[in-house]
Amino acid sequence: xxxxxxDHWFDRKRIDDEITLLWELHVDPLLRCNIWHVRGRDRDAxxxxxxxxxSLKAAAxxxxxxxxxxxxxxxxxxxxxxxxxxxxxVMHRIEAPVMEGSHARGGLYASDMAVEIxxxxxxxxxEIPEALVTSVPKGFDPAEYRVTPTSVTRTVxxxxxxxxxxxxxxxxxxxxxxxxSIGLYEAxxxxxxxxxxxxxxxxxxxxPESDIADYVRTMKRLLELPVRVVHAGHDASFxxxxxxxxxxxxxxxxxxxxPES
Length: 261
Ligand SMILES: [Zn+2]
Ligand SMILES: [Zn+2]
Prior knowledge:
The chain is built from six helices and 13 strands.
């Protein structure tokens, strides 16, 4: 099946003076991750990097005027495809080794996706279209798609800080969706970049690397966190009240998975 040719791959939206959202226009919502650019005084943060189908660095060139710290909230292929393009690469210590290996389990066609990933998506209620991209850059063959492996230059864990000079994001280890999922939390503005730990759509906790008991603990933690706005790994941003609704709904459904202590 030949797909139409896309003439540009990324779109973007200015959220405020310092935050810009970028996304891949021709990717099915199921795999379309939010890419967040945060401008800092001394350096910028780039949170997640999409599938790596087209160059994010080239597309965001005008935004990236100084040192850039590229952070992956977790190692799923829709979040790390562009990571290799950046000089400073940050990921949780548990998932950094995975980034150095091949990502052969992902795919842009449903038929190329590992069965256990497809099962995890279906159990959460998602339908998987045969093609997860609706068009492609010229010369790109979706059947040949692979994430470019890369090493990270800094591994992080709970409590570490991403320092942009005037803005400081604390690393929250938020396992459940994946073992090394992180959020980036700025206490001064009560802003949370949550990755796939929480977003406003059915959450994935039955992927091969997911852990429901961990997810329950993560949601209990998020319920207590002072949050004004959540910029998530997928879908629209939301406020603290919505976060507490989502966490509460998850706990109502899954709390029974937590082993008695
Ligand atoms: Zn994910
Ligand atoms: Zn994702």
